[in-house]
Structure formats: C-alpha cells, structure tokens
# Entry
Amino acid sequence: MPKATHDSVMDAALNKLAEADQIAICSAQPLTYYEGIDPPAWSANAAAALGDPIRPTVRNGYVYECTTAGTTGSSEPAWPTTPGQTVTDGSVVWTCRNNYSLAQGSLVSGDFTIADGDNSGRKVTVAAKTGLPIHTSGTANYVATMDDATRQLRDVTTTAAQALTAGGTVDTSAWKHEIADPT
Amino acid sequence: MRRIEITEELLRDGTQVYRQGDIVSVDPAKAQQWLDLGWARDPETGETGERKPGAAPITPDSLQQAVE
# Structure
C-alpha cells in the first residue's frame, strides 16, 4: 500500500501559516517573534500586558518585551541596548530583545490561498504585497510572517540580498510554502 | 578595510546595528556600496552618493518541505 497523508492533515499545517497577520523584511534570520516584529512606539501612561512588544519613540534597533505587566510612566525611560537587560517604566518592566526588521506590513486571510502543490501535496501561496513602509535602512536577506495574537513567528524564508533605504516602500512578490506528499 | 561614517539614523547590517555618526571599518566593497546608496560618507574625502528612499522589489524564495 502506498504511503499517503490526507490533504486535510497538510491543510491544517498550512492553515496555521495562513493565520499570520504580519509580514516583515529582515536583515538577519529572525528566530523569535520579537526579532521580526516592528511594534508600536512607546507611549506614556499606557497599559502593557505580559508579552506586549514596544519600541522606543526614536528607533534604536531593539524592541522591548513586557515582562512585568502594568502601566507605563509619564516619561520615556532610557532604553538598554543589551538583549536581556531590563528597564522599569512606571509599573512595567521591559526586557530588551534583538530585532532585525527593516520593513513591515499587514497580512489578512485573503492574502493566503491553499491549493494542490506544484509538485505534490499541498501548498499555501502568500500574495504579493505592495508599498510596505521601510522604517530602517539595511540589506534584506529574509522574509518572515508572524502572528500577533499568539506572538509567534510562523514562517521564515530567504531572499536575494537587497538594499532597503528608509523613508520609502518596498514590494514583495508572491511566494509559496509547499508540503510534499510522503515518500 | 575602509573607514566610513554612517549617515543613516539607523542602519542594519545582518545582526549589527549602526547609528548616525558611527565611524566603522568595513570591507571596501561594502563601504563603496554604502557610500553609493547614500548611507554613509567618507570622513576624509566627503564622498557620498545620492540617497534614494525605497527599494527594488523583493522576491521571497518559495519553500518546499517533506513529510517524513
């Protein structure tokens, strides 16, 4: 009897990829959600929940994960730039995380199409995106998708090295993630 | 290696991050690329290129994985 996996099994995995709601162009390979995300800027007297990400109002190349929930202070703290270091901000404690994002945009369910694979199995196609704002200059080498709700990195792929200059936008072409039939 | 001064507010090179005013020594090819892109200037000659915000389109590589 030949080996087989039902399409629904592969589709379940592809549907997890299709839950992503953010796409990021990165200078290095992100290994965590925090390394790929471009979070909102810090604001005063704001509630922060455990795991919330934030960035300084003046970007410094790092992001900060809320590791003690609370309310931010009335003035912006001095942000540490050593990953793992913490800073207290009102009743919130932020922990410094590496971040490699150069440009970022949103994804919606309509950006994903699940169908038979080109070679075998099943695939999800991520639609082309236009006008992703570039917030930091650098050379792009990776493209990542992330899910804000679960704060998970969902997929990472490579791209040919490409210079991105802040203040402009960048387009991405469609790409596919295929799960082959078992052999 | 060639010394250049970063002119971008923030510049990422892989996992490295540089800020405006940083003086860095990088290999000559990379230095010339950054000068041409207007991301840096030569502190001795003042050489720098025209900064053009934006980028050429990105083509993410498709992935294929096996069920093992």
